[in-house]
Amino acid sequence: MFTINDLRIPLLAAPMAGGPSTAALVAAAAQAGGLGMLAAGYKTVTAMANEIEVARELSCNRLGVNLFVPAAMPGSAGSSPAGGADRAARVAEYGHVLEAEAQRYAVTLPTPDPADTDGYTEKIAYLLRYPVPLVSFTFGLPQPEIVERLHDVGTHLTLTVTDAAEARAAVARGADSLCVQGPDAGGHRGTHAADRSPGRQSLTALLTELAQLTVLPLIAAGGVGSGADVRKLVAAGASAVQLGTLLLRTPESGAQQTHKDALASGEYTGTSVTRAFSGRAARGLTNRFIREHDGQAPAAYPEVNQLTRPLRAAAARAGDPDGLALWAGTGFRHSRAEPAQRVITELWRDAYPQQPAT
Ligand SMILES: Cc1cc2nc3c(=O)[nH]c(=O)nc-3n(C[C@H](O)[C@H](O)[C@H](O)COP(=O)(O)O)c2cc1C
Questions:
Q1: What is the similarity comment for this entry (predicted)?
Q2: 3-state class of 80 per DSSP?
Q3: Which domain holds residue 273?
Q4: Bridge partners of 137?
Q5: In a domain, 357, yes or no
Q6: Which atom belonging to ligand 1 lies closest to the Cα atom of 68?
Q7: What percent of the chain shows pLDDT beyond 90?
Q8: What gap in Å lies between CA 216 and CA 178, rounded to an integer?
Q9: Is 123 contained in some domain?
Q10: How far does the centroid of ligand 1 lie from the alpha carbon of residue 183, in Å?
């Protein structure tokens, strides 16, 4: 079975759903000596399978695949206790608030479907039939039966955690490593219950605490932009470090050009954590949409994500960064429009200049 310690350079290209993660980015991470992750979220099983096959070929089968655990799945730790009519009413209320946005972008808002599982069962079935070296989960824990079956086919399981309680649950569930996501991370927080406020403990403090709690390898994620960041996280107990925002502007990243440009434009000077786009807490560049709607959305994922999808798609078509979810971590100023293999290799050299060149 693959282990994190097999990596020549313990750096991972983070799974980034919605376009940024591509087979080319995975291949670049593998060529640098690290590991690239594909993001299966928001994709059909067919799209996921096609991307895996291309990435397998380009990376000599050195890849991981990341899945969202749906809250609607019985037995997942992501299951939200909040539900029923009250939740539906709060989603409908936010839908009314978003009517002005729908008019601005000339789109119709859909009727949300809380039962949508993003093809989770079919994706797991594919990964059991055609195993990949590593599968990671976010937004909750996979059911024990899924853990057992993925282990049976030789897959390494990484479970995302954002605090010590989630880490204990992930260890008990049978994780082979933990992806420890700190508060500076770009994109969605992996917090198991969507309606909980994500932890604010610094990533180094969280790693130090978790290193006392488990011997499993810890993959640190969130806010990494420099070699000094990598060294600090390794010193705090990380076995590997995961890079998201730093890779968003690379040519291999499939992020929208509007998103890439916004990161570099200087027009956006900070990031915020908001539920406005999806109902789950996520960090992005503070743009008009966040300024106008932060605090209005209920903690209802996937419904809010479904509601804003046509708005985000229309903003993307119009090249309007102020209506897009410009996901980014606090280190966004470090993201560079240079080949991903170079960005990863240079980050490692910057962290450990004394080591022989790889
Ligand atoms: C655009 C974007 C999309 C993301 N999508 C996912 C995802 O699909 N699954 C996941 O586990 N994490 C996702 N994340 C979080 C990353 O895996 C990682 O934890 C985060 O990028 C680390 O913080 P950084 O961006 O500051 O490096 C996403 C992050 C970004 C920026």
A1: Belongs to the nitronate monooxygenase family. NMO class I subfamily.
A2: coil
A3: 4-351
A4: 67, 159
A5: no
A6: 9
A7: 92
A8: 7
A9: yes
A10: 12
- Residue 203, amino acid: L
Q: Is the CB of 186 under 6 A from ligand 1?
A: yes
> Which among 121, 11, 152, 138 is positioned nearest to 65, based on CA atoms?
138
Helix (H) or strand (E) holding 27: helix 23-32
- For ligand 1, atom 4, the nearest C-alpha belongs to 16
Q: Total structural domains in the chain?
A: 1
What is the per-residue pLDDT for 81?
46
Q: Is 222 in the pocket of ligand 1 (CB under 6 A)?
A: yes
242 ligand 1 Cβ < 6 A: yes
Mutate to test the pocket of ligand 1, among 65, 157, 188, 252 (most ligand atoms within 8 A of CB): 188
In a domain? residue 358? no
Domain membership flag for residue 51: yes
- Tell how far the Cα of 63 is from the centroid of ligand 1, in angstroms: 16
Residue identifier of the C-alpha nearest atom 27 of ligand 1: 244
Of 54, 55, 67, 48, which Cα lies nearest the Cα of 29? Answer: 55
DSSP string, 335-348: --SS-HHHHHHHHH
From 152, 128, 139, 134, select the one nearest 181 (Cα to Cα): 139
CATH number at residue 328: 3.20.20.70
Whether residue 39 has its Cβ less than 6 Å from ligand 1: yes
160 lines ligand 1 (CB under 6 A): yes
For 5-28, the pLDDT digits (tens) are 999 999 999 999 999 999 999 999
d(CA 276, CA 286): 11
Which residues neighbour 330 within 8 Å (Cβ) at sequence distance 6 or greater? 184, 223, 271, 283
- Give the pLDDT confidence of 88-120 residue by residue, as tens digits: 999 999 999 999 999 999 999 999 999 999 999
